Amino acid sequence: MSNVKTLFITGVSSGFGRALAQVALNRGYRVVGTVRNATAKAEFENLHAENAFAYELDVTHFAAIEAVIADVETHVGAIDVLVNNAGYGHEGVMEESSLDEMRRQFDVNVFGAVAMIKALLPFMRQRRQGHILNITSMGGFITLPGISYYCGSKFALEGISETLSKELAPFNIHVTAVAPGSFRTDWAGRSMVRSARSIADYDALFDPIRQAREEKNGKQLGDPFKAASAMLDVIESSNPPAHLLLGSDALALVRQKMESFSAEIDRWEALTRSTDG
Ligand code: NAP
């Protein structure tokens, strides 16, 4: 029992979190997951008689996080791997989307993840061991009209993740930012927050994008169970990467972005260099 690895995953009610929990339970891990209601808690704990534990936690209830982590460490087991998965997508043209919507997007996708990490790090640092996976997105590298708040939050998490991987390397704590492409989860369905349309000037640009996302929901390329298996490969690696893309769509789009970014840097190199001295 004591050499069973413990994974702590935020948001195990559906999608990547649930798939990762199921695959990990099948591979013999102990999995502690967060959910947001009693029904989801009971349902999750029914997945495995000994190894599935659920805590009710909204990751934006920052004051509650430390007690949850401490309780898991004391009563369930030392957390070997934290997976910051809980998150959602806000969709809306920026001019049409309120600052409150932006705050909520960052509270969940960025502040929630950071709060979890901060609560757990004293334990991992003391053990000189641990692995943190932050689920970002290809939207942490590429952008598309209508998801500025989402991309902003995922760019932020990518940056925090990479920085943290350098700060924690001396303590043998690995940090991996996992950036999936489009996968068949509830992300573009029940979980997505869509701002109402209000400015006709954006109709031509944005209406087809919103419609295409609604039509594609449930038919995305990626299989969350295959993503789960890939994440476990990274968790089981002795030398995990700081960044991992998941899906051939993410691969193509991020490569394309890097090439065009690099070409733009080259085009403006002389002006860039002109400010030295
Ligand atoms: P999902 O099926 O909608 O799952 C999202 C999970 O996050 C649910 O368990 C949800 O809980 C939980 N959650 C949302 N807000 C929360 C909060 N404030 N506190 C605690 N838990 C919360 O979608 P998913 O695709 O698996 O999403 C998981 C992560 O993958 C997200 O960070 C998302 O941005 C990222 N991602 C998804 C895709 C994709 O194509 N699916 C691509 C790139 C990145 P409830 O059931 O209680 O709502």
Automatic annotation (TrEMBL):
Keywords: Oxidoreductase. Belongs to the short-chain dehydrogenases/reductases (SDR) family. It comes from Pantoea endophytica. InterPro entries: NAD(P)-bd_dom_sf, Sc_DH/Rdtase_CS, SDR_fam, SDR_oxidoreductase. This is Short-chain dehydrogenase/reductase.
